[in-house]
Amino acid sequence: MRAVRIRVSSEPPLVDVIVAVHNERRPVERAVRSVLCSQVAMRVTVVAHNVDPRVVIGRLGTLAADERVRVLQLADGVRSPANAFNFGIDAASARYVTIIGSDDSLQTGALDAWVALAEEHRVDAVIAPVIRDDGHPVPTPRIRRGRYRALLDFDRDRVFERTAALGLQRRDAVTDLRYTEGLPRGVDQEYGIRLWSTGRIVFDPAIPAYREHADQSDRVTHAFGPLIDDFHFLDGLLEFVETLSPSLRRAVIAKLIRVHLVPAVRNRIRSSALRDDDLASAAAVLARLAAVSPDATGLLPLDCRADLDAIRSRSAAGATAAAQRRASRVRTAMPIRARWVLHRHAPLRSLAAGRAVMRAVARADGARTRPDGGDR
Is the pTM of this model over 0.85? Predict the structure, then answer.
């Protein structure tokens, strides 16, 4: 590990922005350019992770000459984004840190707004609104409508629905947190849930957003491998989940099944990528999650029941039928345990909160971009 290029700005940074590059084809210049538009004192650390730093500097072009930009090399031979994220955090010295994917970007004014919100509320983290390439906002965190710009409750505001720590974190609040190293996927699961459950967190759907681009075909999180590889993150995460109250354990485990396990099977079926041993792995993961909270499946939508039956019986035909079945509004909104229909972690209220967040983010984004096209 060695520093390839370091420039020191005349003004101490308030924010250290970490951009990890794992592939020389990544449009890192787009990410860095979007950050350098900020007015707040900041420094961009581009981590060339198992990539020739000279190639990264070449991609940056004139941006590499900016005194706020430095390129650091991490050559560890490990295909895991966590290693580069932690390396960047260790190299940070500012009050706040933020991590941006090398193929993503920030809307104009995002970093300034995030810092202003953090300073106003003296929080440990600001959760950023996320907007995808297709213009659709991500419907998390699924917080109560009256809690916009207010301190969030990990349980009542369903903050665990967003584990990706996209946004801003106070550096001294994450001193003891690290992304789980060595994993191809799920490196942010334990980091995010520990931060949300112990820190002072705020979210405002009206502030400029994090832009998630999907124009790179080699994203680690989009590649299919053995299904079991998607769940190595459980080793550390479940140790922490087991310390939560029974109701929170149930909600978090239900989310892991709904957001991670069921889609892991469905997506492989739809892409004809389901391996012979994937269903066996899925059954083992489901049993492991159920051992932490046996009644968690009751919070899942009815639409997932056929998937769970197929996973338990390791039936490829059943899993295929479940993946190909068209979802209905009723089966999506109703929980498997009917008496929990109005539970705050059951689909009806949780989905409604997510839709409200999406509308608020979209409304604010439209107001920002209407005059001149803005960031679109």
Answer: yes
